[in-house]
Design a protein that fits this description.
Blueprint: H1 5-21, E1 24-29, H2 35-47, E2 50-54, H3 57-63, E3 81-85, H4 91-102, E4 107-113, E5 116-119, H5 123-127, H6 132-175
Antiparallel strand pairs: 1-3, 1-4, 2-3, 4-5
Helix pairs in contact: 1-3
């Protein structure tokens, strides 16, 4: 189906804006996946703040120029769905990895983070990144650990003094 020039410009601008604000992108071949399954995938993606785009490769190549995802240019071959992670760099990778496990026809082509193109075999590297919430929890625990240790240490001083005084008292009582 032919797309008018104005529509092509709008698509390119939309994808360029999305790519400009994204933290990572995962590319996959969606041939053989039913439209119902794709609708379910899109619903999951919205819930995780992952933007899915199915765009003609020529338009996608134009749209990613000037972004850190220019590196995916040569990987845009055949039917491709682009999953852009907007808040959590690993969100798109986790989403598409789980979907690929469920659907045999769905094949991950590659991913890009920080201007570096990685193969599909590197999906675990990105998918295993902690979510924003998990990372903040780890940071809070790491920050809190020295304070907790200091509080325990300071709490031990009066306990040790009390034990020493009790030992001296017991020793004097035994001597008398």
């Amino acid at each position: 189906m032919a797309i008018r020039l104005e529509d092509k410009k709008a698509i390119v601008a939309e994808v360029n804006e999305t790519a400009g604000g994204a933290l990572s992108v995962v590319m996959a071949d969606y041939r053989g996946v039913t439209s119902g399954d794709m609708t379910a995938l899109r619903a999951k993606a919205r819930a995780e703040n992952v933007l899915l785009k199915v765009v003609r490769n020529n338009l996608a190549k134009i749209a990613i120029r000037g972004t850190e995802f220019e590196c995916i240019d040569e990987a845009l071959v055949g039917p491709t769905i682009l999953a852009f992670s907007m808040e959590d760099p690993g969100a798109a990778a986790r989403l598409l990895k789980d979907f690929a496990k469920e659907k045999e026809a769905f094949e991950i082509k590659g991913l890009a983070v920080g201007g570096e193109l990685m193969g599909a075999d590197q999906i675990d590297r990105l998918a295993k990144l902690p979510t924003r919430h998990e990372a903040l929890t780890m940071l809070a625990a790491t920050t809190q650990a020295p304070i907790t240790k200091l509080a325990r240490t300071l709490n031990e001083v009066p306990t040790k003094v009390t034990r020493a005084v009790a030992a001296v008292r017991d020793q004097k009582q035994e001597a008398a």
